[in-house]
């Protein structure tokens, strides 16, 4: 796996591109007029995307009808010398459709305990937790 990072303005705006040519913009969001997401925001996005793909894949295999899927991810940071790494991350899945709540909860559990490479990478240093809501009700 390989990505390329290219600076595309005179400040902090970078374009990150994968081998297939798909890209995202990264920027220093502490500066006015930022046009991309911060690297730390992109890390939260990666957790949401990785676990989201897992949950949808597991539920589709179980023939659950997903009509809506949203994830919210919140990260709490802590100062360690000059850096501010994540201390904890909370992922909230909001699913809509004809979905067995127990299957949705199990899918999230499997993602974080077995399949999601992003959260497994962070796991030794970051407390990652999750909540699942099906049709507005917390499971």
Describe the structure.
With 139 residues, this protein is an alpha+beta fold. The chain has two domains: 1-37; 39-138, K homology (KH) domain (GMP Synthetase, Chain A, domain 3, 2-Layer Sandwich), CATH 3.30.300. The protein is 32% helix and 36% strand. It has helices spanning 39-61, 101-115, 117-122; strands at 3-7, 14-18, 23-26, 65-77, 86-98, 127-134, 137-138. β6 (127-134) and β7 (137-138) form a beta hairpin. α1 crosses α2 (101-115). The termini are far apart. The model has no long low-confidence stretch (mean pLDDT 97). InterPro entries: KH_dom-like_a/b (IPR015946), OsmC/Ohr_fam (IPR003718), OsmC/Ohrsf (IPR036102).
Summarize the structure.
Helix content is 32%, strand content 36%. The chain is α+β, with helices and mostly antiparallel strands and 139 residues long.
What features would you highlight for this structure?
32% helix, OsmC/Ohrsf, three-stranded antiparallel β-sheet, 139 residues, four-stranded mixed β-sheet, OsmC/Ohr_fam, 7 strands, alpha+beta, KH_dom-like_a/b, Redox protein
Biggest sheet record: 4 strands, mixed
- Determine the number of helices (DSSP H or I, runs of at least 4 residues): 3
Query: In CATH, what is the class of the largest domain?
Result: Alpha Beta
| CATH homology-level superfamily of the largest domain | K homology (KH) domain
Number of E-type strands: 7
Q: Average pLDDT across residues?
A: 97
Query: Which stretches are poorly predicted, pLDDT < 50 over at least 5 residues?
Result: none
């Amino acid at each position: 796996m390989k990505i390329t990072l290219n600076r595309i303005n005179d400040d902090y705006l970078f374009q990150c591109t994968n081998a297939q040519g798909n890209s995202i913009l990264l920027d220093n969001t502490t500066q006015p007029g930022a046009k991309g997401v911060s690297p730390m925001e992109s890390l939260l996005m990666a957790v949401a995307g990785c676990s989201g793909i897992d949950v949808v894949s597991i539920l589709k295999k179980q023939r659950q009808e997903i009509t809506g899927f949203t994830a919210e991810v919140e990260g709490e940071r802590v100062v360690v010398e000059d850096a501010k790494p994540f201390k904890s991350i909370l992922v909230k899945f909001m699913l809509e459709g004809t979905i067995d709540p127990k299957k949705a909860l199990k899918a999230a559990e499997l993602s974080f305990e077995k399949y999601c490479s992003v959260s497994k990478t962070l796991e030794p240093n970051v407390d990652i937790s999750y909540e699942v809501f099906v049709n507005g009700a917390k499971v």
